[in-house]
Amino acid sequence: HSADAQRTDLMTITRFVLNEQSKHPDSRGDFSILLSHIVLGCKFVCSAVSKAGLAKLIGLAGDTNVQGEEQKKLDVLSNDVFVKALVSSGRTSILVSEEDEQATIVEPSKRGKYCVVFDPLDGSSNIDCGVSIGTIFGIYMLKDEHEPTLQDVLQPGKNMLAAGYCMYGSSCTLVISTGNGVNGFTLDPSLGEFILTHPDIKIPKKGKIYSVNEGNAKNWDAATTKYVEKCKFPKDGSSPKSLRYIGSMVADVHRTLLYGGIFLYPGDKKSPNGKLRVLYEVFPMSFLLEQAGGQAFTGKQRALDLVPNKLHERSPIFLGSFDDVEDIKALYAAQSQG
Ligand code: P6P
């Protein structure tokens, strides 16, 4: 491609998804329609987050703005937008959101064959200081055309058809996989389009960064303690890994995906299942890392093999470069042999 051709041959996410759809001749485009509604939600949240500092949207729920209207916290607003966008797509039957204790069962006239699990604004506690935050989502197919039940979403992550995140930072970046690799798109605000900027993302086989909240070290188990020790004081004479921890999962995972290394949120004595939620944090990120050639491990098993029993259950997670996750798997294997 000449530079000019590349500039004018815009690969938007809409075009990309339609290309993917054309690989499934029997497809009626339902999946493309669903994705276009998720993209719409991301564009809205990107706009709201970027204006938040000015519009005092960050305030606690219950604040009133200059018009005296009840101000919604950004995460509540984002949740409302995604639920409405997904229901109006007419392609979903059951929704699970980090913001809602109960699943949303879509009214019969608007039902479709997909289930969506999502965290509408993960890391929103960081927004007041301008740290990147994000939306995380995963898509399952209904088990069969019947009354939607929780069994349709309590599926192992390996059954997901697609997963992705949208990071709201210096730019708005949507990273998605539909099962054939991982692609990244950046929002061009002047066009209102997500343009393909990171085609076919592959995570380096081994990285030089580890990412964990060292403040929890007192409560870690032996395997995590040993692994982090290895990162800081390598025995084989290699140089120590660098510590990078942003404290916003989407930002930490995005850096891991692009630069390599490992992201850890281990269980510990206080919280044996760690902090991150299985359905809409652990599974979508694990799906993406595997699709990019990395791994995702819970301390006991491949993360995507986990079968959730509750909508909001948590799991420890170790994800990132293939070789780095192998190292911690070996330490957990040794620990489980006692
Ligand atoms: P900690 C943000 O609150 C979040 O849910 C994730 O985005 C992030 O990875 C994690 O919690 C950070 O948790 O305990 O290190 O502050």
TrEMBL record:
Cofactor: Mg(2+)
Name under which the protein is recorded: Fructose-1,6-bisphosphatase, cytosolic
Similarity field: Belongs to the FBPase class 1 family.
Keyword Magnesium belongs to the record: yes
Domain of life: Eukaryota
Catalysed reactions, as listed in the record: beta-D-fructose 1,6-bisphosphate + H2O = beta-D-fructose 6-phosphate + phosphate
Assigned keywords, A-Z: Carbohydrate metabolism, Cytoplasm, Hydrolase, Magnesium, Metal-binding
The organism's taxonomic lineage, starting at the top: Eukaryota, Viridiplantae, Streptophyta, Embryophyta, Tracheophyta
Location within or outside the cell: Cytoplasm
Record gene name: LOC107467878
Fructose-1-6-bisphosphatase class I N-terminal domain sequence ranges: 11-199
Matches recorded under InterPro entries: FBPase_C_dom (IPR044015), FBPase_class-1 (IPR000146), FBPase_N (IPR033391), FBPtase (IPR028343), Fructose_bisphosphatase_AS (IPR020548)
GO annotation, cellular component aspect: cytosol
Record keyword Isomerase present: no
Domain Fructose-1-6-bisphosphatase class 1 C-terminal: 203-332
